[in-house]
Amino acid sequence: MFEQVQEIIAEVLGTDKENIKLESNLTDDLNADSLDALDIATQIEDKLSVKIPDEEFTKFQTVKDIVDYLENNK
């Protein structure tokens, strides 16, 4: 699951996958803004066939938060 999320984030942010770790903070470490976060959520929903409620996605701080949510809500 992490690899899929890592690939999507790298694509959206235009960065190397190697820069994205589980503990990476979306805003502090990866410089994602709110539009990037929305784009990441949309891509995850499309590519992984899941629905992430807006109120859940706004709680995500790290890549691990996203992975944990997806693993717990398959």
From TrEMBL:
GO CC aspect terms: cytosol; membrane
Keywords recorded for this protein, A-Z: Cytoplasm, Fatty acid biosynthesis, Fatty acid metabolism, Lipid biosynthesis, Lipid metabolism, Phosphopantetheine, Phosphoprotein
Location in the cell reads:
Cytoplasm
Sites where O-(pantetheine 4'-phosphoryl)serine occurs are at 34
Any Gene Ontology biological process: lipid A biosynthetic process
PTM notes: 4'-phosphopantetheine is transferred from CoA to a specific serine of apo-ACP by AcpS. This modification is essential for activity because fatty acids are bound in thioester linkage to the sulfhydryl of the prosthetic group.
Where would I find the Carrier domain in this sequence? 1-74
* Entry-linked Pfam families: PP-binding
PROSITE patterns according to UniProt:
CARRIER (PS50075), PHOSPHOPANTETHEINE (PS00012)
Which NCBIfam families does the UniProt entry name for this protein? PRK00982.1-2, PRK00982.1-4
Give the record's family classification.
Belongs to the acyl carrier protein (ACP) family.
Know the name of this protein? Acyl carrier protein
What is the primary gene name for this protein?
acpP
